[in-house]
Amino acid sequence: MNNLILTICGLYSLGFAVFHAYFWRIFHWKKDLYSLHPGNRAIMQILNMRLIYVFLCMALLCFFFQTALLTTSLGHAILAGCSLFWVGRTIEQFIFLRRLYHWAIHALTAIFILGAILFALPLIR
Asked: So what's the pLDDT on residue 109?
């Protein structure tokens, strides 16, 4: 069962990598980021590309290193760290987007909570 959960975690992470790869198109970054200071514009794009990398790495770990994730203290630390990543992302949703009212924000909040649960499930014995 835990292997299935890790496979789902891998697909979840892969999905977020793809989602972030489309940020330029979804959020019209070519036009909208132009209004930012060049340094801030660069930082936004660099951070997004690094997130894509992290999500891809997590997906690969979940697909190809399931035994290590499930049986070693390092694997447990990685899973706990990923779960806490999604807990933190959920909290940040309320801090930084509290004044925006759109159905997608609420949907993403639920998806972030799901990520926190998915990555924590293999740690529960």
From this structure: 95
